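chain below, 63 aa
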Amino acid sequence: MTCTPHYGYGMKICEVIQLPETYYEENVIHSIKPDWAKRLVSTHTINAAKKLMVVDALVKRRR
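prediction:
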């Protein structure tokens, strides 16, 4: 996997190819980086259920 600037910077959506007891294989389907909104620093987690989607993100704000 590619290194990122810091922990929680972005995420990858992966398809599990194999999951036997002794090893794991996956294929990256899509990468999500914090470049889809102007003030985003990190996009850490994404969850969805029915019509609700929640994104855990770090946003730059003025003090």
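Residues 11-59 form one domain. The two ends are 35 Å apart (CA to CA).
thats it, cya
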